[in-house]
């Protein structure tokens, strides 16, 4: 959990890869860029961890040494709302991710809950709460208590994960973490995040349901996004690309106003560069507010 706002990339930044950096070097390289969070991408994983325990532990030790907070993005191959076998396999994937998160000391496993399919909205919520509760119980029985489960707000209309749905899951299941992907919310609501007030409304809604601490300790994903009114999210864009929202300045205002200390993970194509830009924007906003 963050003690102050933290920023970092989703996955190993492209430039690090091009320079041939190893996973274990990532925290040190982020430190050089004055970043202090890293979301390890386990997005293609199956039902067992696809990192060796010693490698996960080595990453964890380096992260600690360099004061980089770790999170883990769980497998994309998760659907907690599908047929029984699909749900069971999804739960095993989520557990594998949490096991690796425990090894590396990552505080949360972020995941995409699944697709509505033939389920109605309330049936979907029920199924999701049930499955996440079962995973949470399984983790407890495995002695994994520090890793939280973070259902993410999703960008496509076919995906479970409106703000209300994510808030309800977090409210109903112990050991969960609020994860707000702002770009996804923007896409899902047809470009609904235009002003500071639009961002504020989301924070207020979350605070009403989950309390002040949960809101202050929100885990965030941020990028610009392209969407269609019909299906929602189309693709992520970098911060400097004109013509796409949302604007990070507006979130920075709200972070400052509500004294939040979120972990902000950048999901653009230049994850580390844009994460550093966002950090700079927040510092400027805070500076401006303080000097008033
Ligand atoms: Zn995601």
Describe this structure in words.
- By secondary structure, the chain is of the alpha/beta class.
- The protein has a single domain (6-290), classed as Alpha-Beta Barrel (TIM Barrel), CATH 3.20.20.150.
- Helices cover 46% and strands 15% of the residues.
- It is built from 11 helices and 10 strands.
- It has helices spanning 14-18, 26-32, 53-65, 84-104, 121-141, 163-172, 182-188, 196-210, 212-216, 248-257, 271-290; strands at residues 6-9, 37-41, 69-73, 108-111, 148-151, 179-181, 219-222, 224-228, 232-237, 263-266.
- It has a 4-stranded parallel β-sheet with strand order 1-10-7-6. Strands 2-3-4-5 form a 4-stranded parallel β-sheet. Strands 8-9 form a two-stranded antiparallel ribbon.
- Helix 4 (84-104) packs across helix 5 (121-141).
- The longest helix is centred in the N-terminal third of the chain and has 21 residues, at 84-104.
- It starts with 5 loop residues before the first strand and ends with a helix.
- Zinc ion (ZN) binds next to loops.
Describe this protein with a few key phrases:
292 residues; 15% strand; alpha/beta; binds zinc ion; 10 strands; four-stranded parallel beta sheet; globular; TIM Barrel
Summarize the structure.
The chain is of the alpha/beta class and 292 residues long.
Element string (H = helix, E = strand) = EHHEHEHEHEHEHHHEEEHEH
In CATH, what is the class?
Answer: Alpha Beta
- What's the N-to-C terminus distance? 30 Å
Number of folding domains? 1
Please, what is the CATH homologous superfamily?
A: Divalent-metal-dependent TIM barrel enzymes
What's the number of extended β-strand segments? 10
- Shape descriptor reads globular
Largest sheet: 4 strands, parallel
Evaluate the radius of gyration. 18 Å
- Oligomer state equals single chain
Low-confidence blocks of residues: none
Give me the side-by-side strand order of the main sheet: 1-10-7-6
Content of β-strand: 15-25%
Bound molecules: zinc ion
Helix count, per DSSP?
A: 11
Task: Indicate the structural class.
Answer: alpha/beta
């Amino acid at each position: 959990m963050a003690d102050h706002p933290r920023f970092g990339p989703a996955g190993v930044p492209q430039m690090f890869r091009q320079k041939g950096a190893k996973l274990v070097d990532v925290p040190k390289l982020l430190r050089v860029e004055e970043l202090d969070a890293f979301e390890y991408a386990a997005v293609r994983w199956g039902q067992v961890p696809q990192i060796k325990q010693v490698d996960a532990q080595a990453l964890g030790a380096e992260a600690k040494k360099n004061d980089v907070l770790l999170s883990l993005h769980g497998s994309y191959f998760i659907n907690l709302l599908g047929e029984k076998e699909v749900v069971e396999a999804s739960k095993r994937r989520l557990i594998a991710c949490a096991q690796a998160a425990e090894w590396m000391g990552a505080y949360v496993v972020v995941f995409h809950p699944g697709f509505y399919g033939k389920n109605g909205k309330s049936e979907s919520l029920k199924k999701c709460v049930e499955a996440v509760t079962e995973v949470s119980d399984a983790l407890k029985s495995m002695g994994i208590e520090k890793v939280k489960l973070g259902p993410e707000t999703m960008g496509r209309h076919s995906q479970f994960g409106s703000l209300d749905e994510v808030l309800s899951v977090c409210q109903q299941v112990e050991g969960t973490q609020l994860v707000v992907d702002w770009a996804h919310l923007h896409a899902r609501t047809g470009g609904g995040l235009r002003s500071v007030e639009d961002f504020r409304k989301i924070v207020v809604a979350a605070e009403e349901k989950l309390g002040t601490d949960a809101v202050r300790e929100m885990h965030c994903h941020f990028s610009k996004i392209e969407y269609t009114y019909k299906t929602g999210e189309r693709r992520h864009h970098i911060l400097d690309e004109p013509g796409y929202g949302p604007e990070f300045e507006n979130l920075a205002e709200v972070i400052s106003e509500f004294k939040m200390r979120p972990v902000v993970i950048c999901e653009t194509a230049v994850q580390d560069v844009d994460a550093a830009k966002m950090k700079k924007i927040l510092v400027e906003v805070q500076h401006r507010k303080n000097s008033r």
